[in-house]
Structure formats: C-alpha cells, structure tokens
Amino acid sequence: MTVLRLADDGEAADLAAFLSRLLHYDRAAAVRLRAAPAGGPGDGGVLAVFGRPPSFEVLAIRTARLGEPAQLDTTVSAGELLDGIEEPAGKLGVPAEVTGPPWAGVLPPQGGWRRVPGLPEPEALGRMLAASVAEFRARDGELPPERRTRTERDRIGREIWSRTVGDTHLPLRAVHAAQSLGFLRAVHAPAGAASAGPLPEPYSLLAAGGWLRLRTPHGSIAVRTGGLHGLSVTPA
After folding, report:
1. Residue 174 near residue 223, CB atoms below 8 Å
2. Alpha-carbon distances of 203 from 3, 55, 56, 120, rounded to whole Å
3. Any residues with CB less than 8 A from the CB of 87 and at least 6 apart, and which?
4. Neighbour-count burial of 66, counting CB atoms closer than 10 A to its CB (0-12 exposed, 13-18 middle, 19+ buried)
5. Residue 48 dihedral angles phi and psi, to the nearest 5°
6. Which of 54-58, 135-139, 152-156 comes out lowest in average pLDDT?
7. pLDDT tens digits, residue range 12-68?
8. Which candidate in 4, 47, 89, 172 could, as Cys together with 35 as Cys, close a disulfide (CB 3.0–4.6 Å)?
9. Is the pLDDT of residue 190 over 50?
C-alpha cells in the first residue's frame, strides 16, 4: 500500500471530514486522487481529491498539503481511503485502485483559470441559499399527498437549484454543495492581521475550458457549463 505523508495532522483531519461528508451522500463513493512533486525544494506539493456527491450534480475538490513529494493518479474507494487516514501521524494509506465511475475521467483543467466577476459577497450567498432551502421546503409541504413523489420533488429542486447566482452563470446548486460539504465556513483573521494587509478574498469564481469553479479556502466546487444531467437535486 502506498503511504502518503501529509503536512500535519490538521490536513489529515480536514481530509477525513471531507471524505465523511461525501460518504454521507453515497456510501459507495469513489474519489480520484492526483499528486505531483512540487517545484521548489522543501515543498511536498499538494494532493487533490475529487469526488462527486450525487445529490448536487457537481465535482467537489479538496486539497491537502503533502509533507513529502509524491507522484500519484488513481481512483479509489472513499470509504477505504478514510479508513487509511492516521490523523495523529498525519499519514494517508492509499487503498487499491478501483474501476472509476465515468465522471472520474472528465476532470476540470489543471491550469488556465481566469477570474469571473459578479459573485455576490459571502453574506449575500448565505441569504440566497437559506431562502432557496426555505422555498423548497415550503413548496414541498404544499404538495398534495398524491403528488408528493420523488419525481415531483426533484422537479421542484431542479427548478430552484438551477437558478444562477448573482451576475454569473454559476448554478445555485454549486453553492448548496459547497455549504453541505463544509466549504463555506467563516474565514477569520489571524492575530495581528490588521497590520499585515487585507486577507485573501474568501470566495472567488473562476472559469476555464468549459468549467466554472467556486473556490473557497476550504475546497472548490466545479461544474461544467454544459450541465451534468440525470441526478437527483433534492436538497439534504
């Protein structure tokens, strides 16, 4: 078994939390792992973990800093990968490769991303998301018993979560997925930050090669601009 050394136990804990959330939506989830040696000496590089929670029609991307350089590109069971995390030691045991689902062969580009304007401020995103969840629950509650079917609930969900955010083409389901996977946690200024200049922008929207990506300090959500079809969008 390949063993990766993460930068610290915090990276291991964050990765474990991400995998746990993916498994909440799909107990048989698979993830694709990518790692390459870093360019500079003393830098272990980054491990990128890609997953697709079936309720949201998006790709979720979580990165973890590596303590030692590694070369890796494989698809594995998310559950087995979670079992292989040793948080106190900051280690990750990579399980045997599995036959990847179709999405694992169609990943966003690694470079060429450009900033896209029009994304609302984090507080506005939060209000928009809360209002949409409330709307779904209200409309679902108004359905008569004979129409309270999965098909009807998915229709309502698809209508709500396909709406775009602000002055962008980003579907609201991407923000919902980011919230559900723990990517929209508040960003707090560290001690002494007032004299160290402004903090990095907490959320940003990027575009490249037919993809949009909502990037946050805790992970990214990517969607294809042509759409991904055939999945339920009933909110959790």
Report:
1. yes
2. 32, 22, 19, 9
3. 9, 12, 13, 16
4. buried
5. -105, 130
6. 54-58
7. 999 999 999 999 999 999 999 999 876 655 577 999 999 999 888 899 999 999 999
8. 47
9. no
Which residues pair with residue 63 across a beta bridge? 48
Torsion of CA 82, 36, 217, 16, to 10 degrees: 10
Q: Can you give the length of the chain in residues? A: 236
Note the pLDDT of residue 39.
61
Rounded Cα–Cα distance for residues 89 and 11 (Å): 11
